[in-house]
């Protein structure tokens, strides 16, 4: 049972990582501490810390405007790549992709 | 009396009473002189009076009697008690005349010492009122009540009850005694306290029915204050490390259900987003991407090659032509040119004696000196082609007209040519200056450098070597033509092709001596070498044999193909040499050991063979054929000898000698062939025909080269001195541009890149002049996506060829069918019956008779009226 779930986690993350142009994937808990990552440690920690704050801010912004609304997805498009954040109550899934062909 | 009269009188009275002593006088100037009271001289403003003696006045009266001014006041003067009278100058004419005399002593005193009181009294006396107020002190009267004591009584505070007074006393003995206090619960002792409990009394409870309250809106105010204490400023830093999970925690978390659920949910939206990005880039600005790259250097409309410099050897006695041009791979501005005598074969034979005396040269020209070549390499005979060694630019190999290969080693003179820069005035070191600026000793003689080695005459080529190439340093071949890896890291093998229909592979490393006999023989026949020639290739000199020979035979006939140019696969000598050579020269300098000076002999047994190496190459021949063949030898089953393989494909495309076969610097498998009057582009894997074949040009093409930076551009030189610039993106049926360079045939074209902004093209002509032109921006800079466009073009052409092939087959089939149809039809015709044919013949004959008759009548040879059968008339 546990092994199956663990394999599922691995398989999902692998599937995401194998998409075209994906540079890195990471799973972060609600406090910004990384759980799983495909990048090196220092980069992961930096991304986790910064994006955690940004996600909280975005979430509070959405809820301030309309308390019945909630943040479902956050995409940051920059010149070089795109950062996607899928927030949840307890975790954050962060994916960095290079969309240019 | 009227008030005015009264006042006058008062005034008069005042005068008389107040000042009864004043007697105005007029004093003439004579009198003034007599009494020394001249105005403004004796009598000034400060002292407007003079005391005059009475007797003086009497004397004056006696002298002048009635004329004297004092006459009117004679009596007063007589009655004057004192001795001196006061005479005052009345400046303002207050009393009517300019002087006045004071008649009494008191007046005199008053005037001289005027008391102040008298003035006040005078003033005061003027404003005396009529009624005089007399002060009376108040007298007390009995009080009359007006009703105010009631209010006072009401408002005053009086004691309503009598005050109770208690007197508490203590025994005197207890005074001063120590006091003891103790606690006692009040409720435990009886009557210790009297209680007055509160109770609600209905009489006194008031029900408030109305309340009047005042309200005011004020802003919310919050007051906060703190106090800080900052004794002295100092920097504060914080060092932290991020919180991380340990490995075990990560593992446990991974297996937790919430994480799995979360990932399953989140991955859906994440994958949608990822796929969105893969499908299309929504942020792309199509308009911006449509434009061409900006930032052009130079004029965009300028498409002509600009003349930069030209070199001619002015010292040679005979007329020369340039046979081959090569830029120095590393040094900027240095170009080497091989010159040959411009004579036909018969003339050569005729003048062979004279020609022997003149040296055949390769000249090194530099941009800084257009008159004197920097170096001159000597060779036994005219060089028709030469190449710098890619791994070491100081080694040069050249092919001679007599079939020998000549090797030079200019390492000793390398520093001489390295310091030469284009535009010598810019360099600061003591570099090579033009000859006329230097002292006569140095640089006076032209640097003739003798060759180091020549190949063996008997074993090498028998006719002129038309092309020479260095094999890449990544592989080497053995006698069979099999490919092995090259461990030495340098280019050590050459390939040459010659007009004697052979292609030879050479190795510059020393061969292991086969038998001791040969070495002894060599020792006996050792030739004295001049001391200034490096001994790099001493082992090769005059004994150099080729490694393998490949004969291009045409099958059974004795006539063979005569190769003019070959093109091997790894022929990247054009642009990538620079990086490679620089890297290698650096390592060589670090080791201080030139690998070419320590050539080791080959070790064929120890090398690893390279599998699936393409040993095929293109050959262009004198007859205009393009042959794609293999250099690997195979054993002939019948004779057991090593035989070269048959060519893979052969195409006769060109009408004349193929003088250029060149691979594109951008594509490994695209080859340009120029020969005769047309140009062809081939793809290596497509053997059905060329991708592009141009139609016949008006003038013969004599030279060609790809552009080094633009994949679709190549340069063709013509026999009338024009250069045609072809641009495949612009036009594929004719050149895009044509420019005149010189008046005679162009023999060689070599472009070269010095910097991204500066590209030159060297064009050599038949008269021995080398022209250096600068390639303009438009021809050197590829447009965006040029490579992909050319790729697409070639792919289209390949598809077109395939289509043509298929169509050929279909056409053949159709042709067959048509022929069958035709055959059937013909058979049908011949099946007509005999009778019908006879009938037809008869009818034809009769109509012919009629025709004959009409013709004869028309001609007048038969008279119709005279002759004629009655049957006809009737």
UniProtKB/TrEMBL annotation, chain A:
Which GO biological process annotations does it have? microtubule-based movement
Lineage in the entry? Eukaryota, Metazoa, Chordata, Craniata, Vertebrata
Which protein is depicted? Answer: Dynein light chain roadblock
Q: Where in the cell is it found?
A: Cytoplasm, Cytoskeleton
SMART domains noted in UniProt: Robl_LC7 (SM00960)
- Biological role stated in the UniProt entry: Acts as one of several non-catalytic accessory components of the cytoplasmic dynein 1 complex that are thought to be involved in linking dynein to cargos and to adapter proteins that regulate dynein function. Cytoplasmic dynein 1 acts as a motor for the intracellular retrograde motility of vesicles and organelles along microtubules.
Identify the InterPro entries for this entry.
DYNLRB1/2 (IPR016561), Roadblock/LAMTOR2_dom (IPR004942)
The chain positions of domain Roadblock/LAMTOR2 read 9-97
Could you give one GO CC term from the UniProt record? Answer: microtubule
Q: Which GO terms describe its molecular function?
A: dynein intermediate chain binding
Q: What is its main location?
A: cytoplasm
Q: Member of which family?
A: Belongs to the GAMAD family.
| Record's keyword terms, sorted | Cytoplasm, Cytoskeleton, Dynein, Microtubule, Motor protein, Transport
Oligomeric state and interaction partners are given as:
Homodimer. The cytoplasmic dynein 1 complex consists of two catalytic heavy chains (HCs) and a number of non-catalytic subunits presented by intermediate chains (ICs), light intermediate chains (LICs) and light chains (LCs); the composition seems to vary in respect to the IC, LIC and LC composition. The heavy chain homodimer serves as a scaffold for the probable homodimeric assembly of the respective non-catalytic subunits. The ICs and LICs bind directly to the HC dimer and the LCs assemble on the IC dimer.
TrEMBL record, chain B:
On assembly, the entry states: Interacts with ACTR2; this interaction reduces binding of the Arp2/3 complex to the VCA domain of nucleation promoting factors. Part of the multisubunit axonemal dynein complex formed at least of two heavy chains and a number of intermediate and light chains. Found in a associated with the catalytic heavy chain DNAH2, the intermediate chain DNAI4, and the light chain DYNLT1.
Q: In UniProt terms, what function does this protein have?
A: Acts as a negative regulator of cell migration, invasion, and metastasis downstream of p53/TP53, through inhibition of Arp2/3 complex-mediated actin polymerization. Via its association with the multisubunit axonemal dynein complex, is potentially involved in the regulation of cilia function. May play a role in osteogenesis of dental tissue-derived mesenchymal stem cells.
Q: Name one GO cellular component term.
A: inner dynein arm
Region Disordered: start and end of each range? 1-22
Q: Which GO terms describe its biological process?
A: cilium movement involved in cell motility; inner dynein arm assembly
Q: Which UniProt keywords apply?
A: Coiled coil, Cytoplasm, Repeat, WD repeat
Q: Which GO terms describe its molecular function?
A: dynein heavy chain binding; dynein light chain binding
Cytoplasm is among the record's keywords? yes
Major location category of this protein: cytoplasm
In its UniProt entry, the species of origin is given as Colobus angolensis palliatus (Peters' Angolan colobus)
Q: Which InterPro entries match?
A: Dynein_IC (IPR050687), WD40/YVTN_repeat-like_dom_sf (IPR015943), WD40_repeat_dom_sf (IPR036322), WD40_rpt (IPR001680)
Name the chain's protein. Answer: Dynein axonemal intermediate chain 3
Provide the coiled-coil residue spans.
801-840
The organism's place on the tree of life at top rank:
Eukaryota
Q: Does the keyword Coiled coil apply?
A: yes
SMART domains, per the entry: WD40
Q: Where is the composition biased (Basic residues)?
A: 1-12
Its annotated compartments are:
Cytoplasm
């Amino acid at each position: 049972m546990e092994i199956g779930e663990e394999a599922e986690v691995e398989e999902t993350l692998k599937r995401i990582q194998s998409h075209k142009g994906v540079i890195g994937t990471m799973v972060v808990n609600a406090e910004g501490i990384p759980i799983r990552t495909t990048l090196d440690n220092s980069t992961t920690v930096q991304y986790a810390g910064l994006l955690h704050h940004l996600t909280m801010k975005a979430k509070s912004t959405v809820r301030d405007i309309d308390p019945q609304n909630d943040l479902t997805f956050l995409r940051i498009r920059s010149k070089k790549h795109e950062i996607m954040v899928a927030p949840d109550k307890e975790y954050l899934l962060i994916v960095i992709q290079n969309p240019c062909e | 009396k009227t008030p005015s009269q009264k006042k006058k009188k008062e005034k008069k009275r005042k005068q008389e009473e107040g000042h009864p002593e004043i007697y105005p006088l007029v004093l003439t100037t004579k009198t003034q002189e007599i009494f020394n009271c001249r105005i403004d001289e004796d009598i000034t403003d400060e002292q407007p009076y003079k005391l005059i003696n009475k007797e003086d006045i009497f004397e004056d009266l006696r002298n002048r009697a009635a004329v004297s001014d004092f006459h009117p006041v004679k009596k007063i003067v007589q009655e004057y008690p004192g001795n001196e009278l006061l005479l005052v100058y009345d400046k303002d004419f207050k009393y009517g005349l300019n002087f006045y005399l004071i008649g009494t002593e008191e007046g005199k005193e008053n005037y001289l010492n005027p008391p102040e009181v008298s003035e006040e009294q005078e003033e005061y006396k003027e404003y005396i009122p009529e009624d005089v107020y007399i002060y009376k002190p108040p007298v007390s009267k009995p009080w009359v009540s007006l009703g105010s004591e009631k209010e006072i009584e009401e408002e005053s505070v009086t004691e309503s009850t009598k005050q109770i007074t208690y007197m508490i006393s203590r025994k005197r003995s207890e005074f001063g005694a120590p006091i003891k206090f103790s606690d006692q619960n009040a409720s435990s002792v009886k009557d210790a306290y009297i209680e007055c409990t509160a109770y609600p009394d209905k009489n006194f409870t008031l029900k408030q029915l109305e309340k009047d309250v005042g309200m005011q809106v004020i802003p919310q105010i919050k007051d906060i204050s703190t106090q800080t204490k900052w004794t002295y400023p100092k920097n504060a830093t914080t060092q932290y490390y991020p919180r991380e999970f340990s490995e075990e925690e990560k593992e446990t978390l991974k297996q937790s259900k919430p994480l799995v659920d979360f990932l399953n949910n989140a991955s859906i939206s994440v994958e949608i987003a990822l796929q969105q990005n893969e499908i299309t880039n929504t942020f792309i600005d199509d308009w911006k991407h449509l434009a061409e790259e900006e930032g052009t250097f130079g004029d965009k409309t300028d498409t002509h090659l600009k003349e930069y410099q030209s070199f001619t050897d002015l010292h040679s006695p005979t007329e020369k032509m340039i046979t081959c041009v090569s830029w120095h791979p590393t040094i900027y501005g240095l170009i080497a040119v091989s010159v040959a005598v411009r004579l036909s074969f018969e003339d050569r034979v005729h003048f062979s004696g004279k020609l022997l005396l003149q040296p055949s040269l390769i000249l090194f020209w530099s941009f800084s000196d257009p008159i004197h070549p920097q170096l001159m390499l000597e060779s036994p005979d005219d060089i028709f082609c030469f190449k710098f060694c890619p791994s070491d630019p100081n080694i040069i190999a050249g092919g001679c007209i007599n079939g020998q290969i000549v090797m030079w080693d200019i390492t000793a003179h390398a520093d001489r040519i390295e310091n030469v820069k284009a535009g010598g005035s810019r360099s600061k070191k003591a570099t090579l200056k033009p000859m006329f600026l230097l002292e006569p000793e140095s640089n006076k003689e032209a640097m003739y450098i003798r060759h180091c080695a020549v190949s063996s005459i008997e074993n090498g080529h028998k006719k002129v070597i038309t092309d020479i190439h260095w094999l890449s340093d990544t592989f080497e071949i053995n006698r069979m033509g099999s490919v092995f890896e090259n461990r030495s890291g340098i280019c050590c093998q050459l390939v040459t092709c010659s007009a004697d229909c052979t292609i030879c592979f050479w190795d510059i490393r020393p061969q292991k001596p086969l038998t001791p006999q040969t070495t002894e023989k060599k020792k006996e026949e050792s030739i004295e070498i001049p001391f200034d020639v490096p001994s790099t290739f001493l082992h090769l000199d005059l004994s150099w044999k080729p490694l393998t020979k490949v004969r291009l035979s045409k099958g059974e006939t004795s006539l063979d193909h005569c190769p003019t140019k070959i093109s091997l696969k790894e022929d990247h000598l054009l642009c990538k040499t620079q990086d490679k050579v620089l890297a290698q020269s650096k390592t060589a300098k670090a080791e201080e050991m030139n690998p070419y000076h320590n050539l080791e002999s080959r070790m064929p047994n120890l090398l690893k063979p390279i599998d699936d190496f393409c040993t095929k190459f293109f050959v262009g021949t004198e007859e205009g054929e393009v042959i794609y063949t293999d250099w690997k030898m195979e054993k002939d089953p019948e004779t057991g000898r090593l035989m070269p393989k048959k060519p893979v494909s052969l195409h006769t495309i060109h009408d004349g000698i193929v003088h250029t076969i060149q691979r594109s610097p951008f594509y490994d498998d695209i080859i340009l062939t120029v020969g005769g009057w047309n140009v062809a582009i081939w793809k290596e894997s497509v053997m059905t025909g060329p991708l592009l074949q141009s139609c016949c040009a008006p003038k013969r093409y004599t030279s060609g080269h790809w552009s080094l930076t633009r994949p679709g551009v190549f340069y063709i030189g013509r026999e009338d001195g024009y250069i045609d610039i072809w641009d495949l993106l612009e036009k594929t049926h004719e050149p895009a541009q044509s420019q005149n360079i010189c008046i005679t045939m162009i023999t060689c074209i070599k472009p070269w890149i010095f910097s991204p902004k500066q590209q030159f093209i060297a064009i050599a002509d038949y008269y021995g002049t080398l022209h250096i032109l600068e390639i303009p921006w438009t021809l050197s800079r590829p447009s965006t996506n040029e490579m992909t466009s050319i790729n697409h073009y070639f792919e289209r052409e390949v598809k077109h060829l395939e289509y043509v092939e298929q169509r050929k087959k279909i056409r053949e089939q159709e042709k067959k069918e048509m022929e069958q149809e035709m055959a059937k039809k013909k058979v049908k015709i011949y099946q007509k019956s005999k009778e019908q044919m006879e009938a037809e013949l008869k009818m034809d004959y009769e109509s012919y008779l009629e025709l004959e008759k009409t013709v004869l009548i028309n001609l007048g040879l038969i008279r119709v009226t005279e002759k004629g059968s009655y049957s006809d008339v009737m």
